[in-house]
Specification:
The chain is mainly α. It contains 7 helices and 3 strands, in the order αβααββαααα.
Length: about 160
């Protein structure tokens, strides 16, 4: 499991390396699920997620990160959800998985695509353009996101079988 400081440092370092080529300002905050859900509810994002059927109940949320557009952008990373999805990964894979998520968000900031309409991964909101940028620029990170996708969909199947 990754701790607050470790998550923040990985996000910060990933942004630093990304900004060597692309100038995008971004601040990071690591929060727990209760605070993450309240933030999404207060901003109206949770209602949109439910409306678009990305999530049926806030308690079942798998969204790891949400980025608010601005100058600088503000990326909120939910430690609880990140660790739940990546718990079966090795420590090194957990770090790389988080790095892939941060790169994914930075690719969206780069292309100014904030109206996301895809939820292919189950833990990230995306657009075709954002995914293509990530796949082209960071193919290994793109593959790691697919690993996370498999974990989320396995969990969803187990949950449905229990009901």
């Amino acid at each position: 499991m990754l701790g607050d400081k470790e998550i923040y440092n990985i996000a910060f370092e990933t942004h630093y390396e990304f900004s060597v080529e692309y100038l995008i300002e971004c601040k990071f905050e690591v929060i727990i699920i209760d605070k993450f859900i309240k933030m999404l509810e207060k901003s109206g994002i949770m209602a949109k997620l439910i409306e678009k059927k990305f999530v049926d109940d806030p308690k079942n949320l798998n969204l790891v990160v949400y980025t608010f557009d601005g100058d600088p952008n503000k990326m909120f990373i939910c430690k609880t959800i990140l660790n739940r999805i990546s718990k079966r990964f090795s420590k090194q894979r957990q770090k790389l998985f988080l790095q892939a998520i941060v790169l994914h968000e930075l690719c969206h900031a780069l292309s100014n695509t904030y109206e996301r309409n895809l939820f292919d991964y189950g833990f990230l909101m995306s657009t075709e353009e954002g995914l293509e940028n990530l796949k082209e620029e960071y193919p290994e990170s793109y593959k790691l996101l697919d690993e996370g996708k498999k974990v989320v969909f396995k969990e969803k199947k187990k949950t449905k079988k229990r009901k």
